[in-house]
């Protein structure tokens, strides 16, 4: 069997008119090619996006030459693992194939067009936007949250712009392309479907073979082989292998991730993959939405994943590895691949298999009604069949979900009238996709959409059933409202915060830089995003007076909001079986709901999330008109410890204390009411409760202490912050020790303000007088004087104790002219661009 021969060299790209030409990288896309050739500015900087819209309306032709010497195989196929999107493929002037679906791969027989010697391969990409507009014209309008017609083309939806992403409509050969020559038999598809029963794992290996005559197929695991012969007129065999006493694959936090090599042969062809042995179920009785792996019910500590770059070919294994490692650092056990993005590449799922990260995979449909007519209908069926089969080998994949918010949109967002009876995608989510999953991979649960309550007769976003998305918080209500919800699965909830300072500075050249300066507003895509940030701050903090205060406080508020939500949902286990935070990552530098920004920098939310998602969590929650200490034990061992809750004055004095004995069974939650002396403050403005583990052998560094303040920060009498600092060299960087002389609320150091490469290991630490915190910074040689001053080292006291308004007035006066101009320009930009989701 001759291997796949990549054809990745010597490509060029040119516009149909021939005006624009550049060398091309394959796999790649037109934007990155033009950027590399110096023909366009970086689309991620300032408002360059706006000037590059023409690229998405242009036809692009990719061409290369290669030589072929005729190897005498029976078959020569041109394999295109991914074409983005409206493509015509020609070999030596002969049209050998076409495509209009980024989510599929193609194999074109090219024997008739191939020549011995030099060959010319060309792929012409029509404008995806114009294709979608034409189809919309033809099939009739379908409503959605955005005006761009991404629902009329099978292409990554967020490429058309989203409330965190720019509109950069790509074209290109986005996955490997090459020749595959073969004779006899070729393994076209392998679906290793795993079930576990009575201590034995059974792998039903479904093998589909393309071949000329009969073919012998085999499958081997752990030295045990099963064989079969597929007759001449057949194409599939099922080989069953049993693994007694299997080492089961578990999600992280539940056990190991052993992988077994599975080898499949058909004639000369060999397919090898590491698979995991495990079983997954979705329990939905009485409205529940609980995943169970190997019979163990799991609380989902999740994050939503969006494409990590608008140009997905830039996301290789290293980038995935870095981002998923960050997910693990925040103690996440599940990543939801959201429906406005992609079926990610093999590397993504392979890394998740190894890390024990469960994957909830949305089919790529989001926030719009989708036409079910052909060509979309046929494309969806073909794409789903390919992807369900492709991903069936990955133990990490635990759930297929039909779409993001389309059932909710149909039921609740006023779509039915404008649809005038036209199809909206319901047939996909309720018929096509469940049928394909049931046929090709019945071992995986399928759920029609998120949110969805289990029946089209029920409101899709009913907290009592199925999955729920909570967006009234952020859009219009304070984050403490999370506590009013008792969802079975909080599949989306999020709160915005700006990107790290160094990221903003790299991407935006505004001078002065203001929350509403032109560039920063361009990198804020949410409807009224900055107004919502301000509205979200208002109940908690004084109005920030400077850009630096705004930046810090909005980041802190984002972290506080999500921490509160996560702790509340975890405390509801097992009624609530998971929280999936919107969102882990970004695709470019932007103000968004992410924990990690578009340059990969951790935002303060990241550190809050790590604490809130720790295996063991202590949290103070309102219960029965009072307060309770809730201990969440998401480990397999009982948690027996002593804890103490103390009501302190801000000067550190202990005003009341209560000792509590924790005995929390494995994977359970214990709620212990706190007594009135602890919960009733003498002065709500200058007291707090701190609850921590005290024994058996002192505190537990893995469990963060729980804090409760009796009033929002703006109403607290936080002291003027005083502390001592010491910086010393540490391996790879330096250690900054801060010793509090007063209470310090949400102390954080932002070393990226001094050196964009510098990162710190922790942020948002609250200290009582006399306590100390250590911050490990991964970069040496920072200006140590600047390191310990605002805005690099800072806490909430800086703003609350000093009152921000005076500084604000001063800075506003100086800067108002520029920012008024910025606002005017932005309004005209907005009017000219997409009408964003309301
Ligand atoms: C949900 C998501 C995304 C969106 C987010 C923030 O609707 O599914 O579409 O980016 O909210 O508005």
Mind explaining what this structure looks like?
With about 850 residues, the chain is an alpha+beta fold. It has 5 domains: about 180 residues, Jelly Rolls; about 90 residues, Immunoglobulin-like (Sandwich), CATH 2.60.40.10; about 180 residues, TIM Barrel; about 100 residues, Immunoglobulins (Immunoglobulin-like, Sandwich), CATH 2.60.40; about 80 residues, Immunoglobulin-like (Sandwich). The protein is built from 19 helices and 45 strands. α4 runs parallel beside α5 and α6 packs parallel to α9. The radius of gyration is 28 Å and the shape is globular. The relative contact order is 0.08. The site of beta-D-mannopyranose has 11 residues, from loops.
Which ions, cofactors or small ligands are bound in this entry?
Answer: beta-D-mannopyranose
Q: Nearest-angstrom radius of gyration?
A: 28 Å
Query: Number of DSSP helices?
Result: 19
Give the CA-based shape: globular
Q: Please, what is the oligomeric state?
A: single chain
Number of strands: 45
Question: CATH topology of the largest domain, what is it called?
Answer: TIM Barrel
- Structural class, please? alpha+beta
Helix content: 10-25%
Q: What topology, given as strand order, has the largest sheet? A: 3-2-4-10-7-8
CATH architecture call of the largest domain: Alpha-Beta Barrel
Instruction: Tell me the number of structural domains.
Output: 5
Query: What is the CATH level 1 assignment of the largest domain?
Result: Alpha Beta
Q: What is the CATH H-level superfamily of the largest domain?
A: Glycosidases
């Amino acid at each position: 069997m001759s291997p796949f021969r990549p054809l990745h060299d010597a490509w060029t790209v040119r516009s149909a008119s021939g005006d624009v030409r550049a060398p091309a990288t394959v796999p790649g896309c037109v934007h990155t090619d033009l950027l590399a050739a110096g023909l366009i500015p970086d689309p991620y900087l300032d408002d360059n996006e706006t000037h590059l819209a023409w690229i998405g309306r242009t036809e692009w032709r990719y061409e290369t030459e290669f030589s072929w010497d005729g190897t005498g195989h029976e078959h020569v196929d041109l394999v295109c693992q991914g074409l983005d999107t409206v493509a015509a493929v020609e070999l030596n002037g002969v049209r050998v194939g076409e495509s209009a679906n980024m989510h599929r791969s193609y194999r074109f027989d090219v024997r008739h067009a191939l020549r011995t010697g030099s060959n010319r391969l060309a792929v012409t990409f029509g404008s995806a936007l114009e294709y979608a507009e034409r189809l919309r014209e033809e099939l009739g309008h379908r409503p959605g949250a955005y005006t761009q017609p991404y629902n009329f083309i099978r292409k990554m939806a967020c490429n058309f712009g989203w409330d965190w992403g720019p509109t950069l409509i790509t074209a290109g050969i986005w996955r490997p392309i090459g020749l595959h020559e073969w004779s006899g038999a070729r393994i076209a598809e392998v679906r290793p479907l795993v079930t576990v029963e009575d201590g034995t794992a059974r792998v039903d290996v479904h093998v589909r073979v393309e071949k000329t005559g009969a073919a012998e197929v085999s499958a081997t695991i752990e030295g045990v082989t099963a064989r079969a012969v597929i007759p001449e007129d057949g194409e599939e065999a099922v080989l069953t292998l049993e693994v007694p006493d299997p080492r089961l694959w578990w999600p992280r936090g539940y056990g190991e991730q052993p992988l077994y090599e599975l080898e499949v042969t058909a004639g000369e062809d060999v397919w090898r993959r590491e698979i995991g042995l495990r079983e997954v179920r979705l329990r939905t009785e009485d409205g529940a939405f609980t995943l169970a792996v190997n019979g163990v019910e799991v609380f989902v500590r999740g994050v939503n994943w969006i494409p990590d770059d608008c140009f997905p070919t830039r996301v290789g294994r290293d980038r995935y590895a870095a981002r998923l490692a960050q997910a693990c650092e925040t103690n996440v056990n599940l990543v939801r691949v959201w429906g406005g993005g992609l079926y990610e590449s093999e590397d993504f799922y392979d890394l998740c298999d190894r890390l024990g990260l469960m994957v909830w995979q949305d089919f790529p449909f989001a926030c719009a009604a989708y036409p079910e007519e052909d060509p979309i209908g046929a494309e969806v069926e073909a794409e789903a069949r390919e992807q369900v089969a492709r991903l069936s080998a990955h133990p990490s994949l635990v759930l297929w979900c039909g779409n993001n918010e389309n059932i909710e949109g149909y039921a609740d967002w006023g779509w039915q009238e404008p649809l005038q009876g036209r199809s909206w995608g319901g047939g996909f989510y309720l018929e096509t996709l469940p049928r394909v999953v049931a046929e090709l991979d019945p071992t995986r649960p399928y759920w029609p959409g998120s949110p969805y309550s289990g029946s089209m007769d029920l409101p899709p976003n009913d907290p009592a059933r199925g999955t729920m998305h909570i967006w009234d918080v952020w859009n219009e209500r304070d984050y403490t409202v999370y506590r009013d919800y008792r969802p079975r699965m909080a599949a989306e909830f999020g709160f915005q915060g700006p990107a790290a300072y160094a990221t903003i500075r790299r991407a935006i050249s505004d001078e002065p830089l203001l929350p509403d300066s032109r560039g920063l507003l361009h990198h804020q895509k949410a409807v009224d995003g900055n107004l919502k940030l301000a509205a979200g701050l208002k109940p908690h903090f004084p109005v920030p007076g400077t850009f630096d205060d705004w930046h810090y406080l909005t980041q802190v508020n984002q972290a506080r909001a999500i921490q509160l939500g996560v702790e509340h949902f975890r405390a509801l286990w097992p009624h609530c079986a998971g929280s999936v935070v919107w969102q882990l990552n970004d695709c470019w530098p932007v103000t968004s709901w992410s924990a990690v920004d578009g340059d990969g920098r951790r935002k303060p939310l990241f550190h809050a999330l790590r604490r809130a998602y720790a295996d063991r969590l202590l949290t103070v929650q309102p219960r029965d008109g009072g307060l309770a200490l809730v201990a969440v034990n998401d480990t397999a061992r009982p948690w027996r410890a002593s804890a103490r809750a103390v009501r302190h004055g801000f000067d550190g004095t202990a005003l009341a204390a209560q000792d509590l004995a924790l005995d929390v069974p494995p994977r359970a939650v214990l709620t212990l009411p706190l007594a009135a002396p602890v919960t009733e403050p003498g002065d709500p403005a200058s007291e707090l409760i701190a609850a921590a583990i005290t024994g058996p052998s002192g505190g537990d560094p893995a469990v963060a202490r729980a804090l409760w303040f009796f009033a929002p920060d703006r109403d607290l009498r936080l002291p003027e912050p005083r502390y001592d600092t010491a910086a010393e060299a540490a391996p790879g960087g330096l250690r900054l020790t801060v010793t509090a002389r007063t209470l310090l609320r949400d102390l954080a150091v932002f070393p990226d303000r001094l050196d964009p490469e510098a990162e710190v290991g922790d942020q948002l630490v609250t200290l009582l007088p006399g306590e100390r915190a250590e911050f490990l910074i991964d970069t040496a040689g920072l200006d140590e004087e600047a390191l310990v001053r605002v805005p690099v080292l800072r806490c909430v006291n800086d703003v609350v104790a000093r009152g921000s308004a005076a500084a604000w007035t001063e800075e506003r006066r100086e800067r108002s002219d520029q920012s008024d101009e910025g606002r005017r320009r932005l309004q005209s930009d907005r009017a000219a661009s997409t009408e964003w989701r309301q």
